Amino acid sequence: MASSTGSTPTLGVEEEFLLVDPTSGAPVALNRAVADRAARDGVELQLELTSCQVETTSSVVENTSDLRDELLRLRTVAAGAAEAAGAQLLAVGLPPTLPSQFPVTDTPRYRDIGERFGMIAHEQGICGCHVHVAVPDRDAAIGVSNRLRPWLPLLLALTANSAIYRNADTGHASWRSVLWARWPSAGPPPQFASADEYDAAVDMLCHSGVIRDDGMVYWDVRPSRNFPTIEVRVADVPATVAESVTFAALVRGCVMTALEEHRRGEPVQPLASFALKAAYWKAARDGLDGDSLDLQEHAPAPTRQLLEQLIDRVRPALEQVGDYELVTFGLAGVAERGNGAMRQQAAWRRNHEVSDVLAEAAAATLESPS
């Protein structure tokens, strides 16, 4: 997915999207038809667990300008394919309307997951964003993962985009993350001493039947078994391309900073599991426009303030790859216009009509980045 050649780690982004009926907004089981049509335009869409979802995969890129162009192209092609198949593509963490069901995609693996995990799998429809960043090796990936854990709630709050679900305001900016936590291997990763210890933990989960295979390691940070990359999976799919690019750039800056600390042998910040769980809940509940839990002080603090502190911390890495201005400009734009959750809630509060939420989400999905 990415390589670590040169001084700039490459990156790639996967975005998951919901397919809905253009009139009712209800999820529609058309992922195969949409993927077939996108293939005619040279874009390979991945089929997700439920048949109302598709996923795009960017090329491996070195700079965020190329990433922005790539993500906009992929969203545009996928949206056109959805329209041709009788659906609408939405960048939302969860379906805003009340779904009648989430049919599992008809492949042997997905059928097996559906049978093993029951309602957890069948009440899915969850759309996230995954950022892959190159690292030198898997032990370095574990060192980075350990150091990213305190920052994950902030990244979740930044990208929250699932406030409206089942025709109601959930009272949470990221209800996706609350539902996602039902999977046995989801949420923040444990701290591991080495890649060998990580592999032993994954083998235990597989052999015990807790997960079907290592593809079901859903932790919000995970190393790749096949490539020298680390994957950050904490985010709701962002509402806009601009937000996805800002998020990816910030993630790469965080990974580069953590990697340098790992190389220098700096100790990992002690982190109580109950505090991290509390920070996750605060992020899911309050999102960008509220308080987060400062995991150093164990006290609430404005999320935007903590994000500014994070940017200051990773600024040398952002400047090294030329992304500092992009990230600061991007975050200022999100603060001004709101992220996906804030846009959804504002649309809902106008008339308490889910059609307003759907229209807002559809416009944001293809919004051209400035």
Task: Describe the structure in brief.
The chain has helices at 31-40, 64-84, 108-117, 119-122, 138-148, 152-159, 175-180, 195-207, 241-263, 273-286, 303-320, 324-337, 340-351, 354-365; strands spanning 11-20, 46-47, 53-57, 88-90, 128-134, 164-165, 168-169, 186-187, 218-219, 221-223, 229-236, 291-294, 299-302. It is α+β, with helices and mostly antiparallel strands. The longest helix has 23 residues, at 241-263.
Can you put this structure into words, describing what you see?
This protein is α+β, with helices and mostly antiparallel strands and 370 residues long. The chain has 14 helices and 13 strands. It has helices spanning 31-40, 64-84, 108-117, 119-122, 138-148, 152-159, 175-180, 195-207, 241-263, 273-286, 303-320, 324-337, 340-351, 354-365, and strands at residues 11-20, 46-47, 53-57, 88-90, 128-134, 164-165, 168-169, 186-187, 218-219, 221-223, 229-236, 291-294, 299-302. The strands form four sheets. Strands 1, 2, 3, 4, 5, 10 and 11 form a seven-stranded antiparallel beta sheet that branches. A two-stranded antiparallel sheet has the order 6-7. It has a two-stranded parallel ribbon with strand order 8-9. The longest helix has 23 residues, at 241-263.
Topology of this protein?
Layout: E1 11-20, H1 31-40, E2 46-47, E3 53-57, H2 64-84, E4 88-90, H3 108-117, H4 119-122, E5 128-134, H5 138-148, H6 152-159, E6 164-165, E7 168-169, H7 175-180, E8 186-187, H8 195-207, E9 218-219, E10 221-223, E11 229-236, H9 241-263, H10 273-286, E12 291-294, E13 299-302, H11 303-320, H12 324-337, H13 340-351, H14 354-365
Parallel strand pairs: 8-9
Antiparallel strand pairs: 1-3, 1-4, 1-5, 2-3, 5-11, 6-7, 10-11, 12-13
Helix pairs in contact: 1-2, 2-9, 5-9, 6-10, 9-11, 9-12, 11-12, 13-14
